[in-house]
Amino acid sequence: MNKIDNFFTKKECDWFIWYHSVLPETRDNGQRFLTMTHWDQPFFSRKLKQLQEKLPSNEEITTVNINFDYSAGGVHSDGYIDEDKNIANSYLIPISVHDTDAYYTIIFEQKSAKAVTFNNELGLGSKGITTYQQITRNQYGLADTPFDKEIYNKYLDHLKYDALGGFTVDCIHKWKLGDAMIWPRENFHVSANFSNKNARASVLITTRYK
Amino acid sequence: MIDYVFENNGSIQYDVNGPKIHFYGKNYVTNTKDYVIIKSIYYKDLLLNELFQYSTMTTDNEDYKELKNVNYVSFNGTWELKFTEDDIKQILKKKLT
Question: Cα separation of B84 and A11, whole Å?
Fold first, then answer.
């Protein structure tokens, strides 16, 4: 697990907020307003080059989204929709944070190369689902080992405790404006609960190996 | 915030000042065929050549004093873009829907 300090400057963070404001469509998925950046369009080519240059040379971009979160999400992986053996990493870069609030993203050791989520079993229903497939604990084969109670109480009290059994935490990322939090796309992860529901926004970049 | 890609075919010089470009130095007697093409317009790093439709140019030629939608420049004069953020939204909407 990894991070890159100052992946975006404040000016670059503000650019994405501006860009979101001029795009014609944003989707409310029940947890966040999600804006597709249309990163593969010719008009975005200069920006894409700038983003690509920030990434390792053996990775190429597969998604760039802007998210304005108003609710903490459920456990999911950013794996493939259409099978891809070369999925690489997720880069989550905060572009807006509330001064007095702290935000965290929890990365688990468990993995799924396919994009799936446990949102239903975690008590979130279909909120936060755009293209990901819902799966159950049984389908995945999660153990019944109780989840770390301290971590649950501190970060994940928006989810059903029992549904987290079998998950083990690999890393807890703290959000910092402009810093990229990085994890392998196949690793399950989840947003910690947070207050100030209309204050935070981020850019998510996913990559594949060339 | 705004920048351009030019193709300069001759001796015309230009100074860029945001949405305004001052073209000068063309000698209409000795360099009749000189011209500049504004190939691309980037606004906040987005390639938006649709902005040409928001361009005007005032020239030193009596017959072509005021021009609109200009990307081919063969006169001395001042080229200018005037648009709003709403125009950017409309351009992107048209591109994406």
Answer: 21
Identify the structural domains of chain A with CATH numbers, from first to last: 2-209 (2.60.120)
Q: Are the beta carbons of A167 and A110 closer than 8 angstroms?
A: yes
- Subunit contact B92:A50, Cβ cutoff 8 A: no
Nearest-CA distance B44 → chain A (Å): 8
Gyration radius (Cα) of chain B, Å: 14
Give which of A202, A200, A203 is closest to A71, Cα–Cα: A200
**Separation CA A204–CA A173 (nearest Å):** 14
- Span A167-193, pLDDT tens digits: 999 999 999 999 999 999 999 999 999
Average pLDDT of the segment spanning A195-200: 80
> Strand pairing partners for B22?
B15, B78
Q: Do B45 and A46 lie within an 8 Å CB cutoff?
A: yes
Residues 6+ apart with CB under 8 A from A204: A63, A64, A65, A67, A78, A90, A91, A92, A93
Tens of pLDDT along chain B (97 residues) come to: 999 999 999 999 999 999 999 999 999 999 999 999 999 999 999 999 999 999 999 999 999 999 999 999 999 999 999 999 999 999 999 999 8
What ipTM score was computed for the predicted complex, to two decimals? Answer: 0.91
Report the Cα A156 to chain-centroid distance in Å: 15
Nearest to B46 among A21, A25, A44 (CB): A44
Residues with Cβ within 8 Å of A181's Cβ and at least 6 positions away in sequence, in order, are A3, A91, A92, A93, A105, A173, A175
Rounded to two decimals, what is the model's pTM? Answer: 0.92
Question: What is the residue whose two structure tokens read 């947070």?
Answer: A194
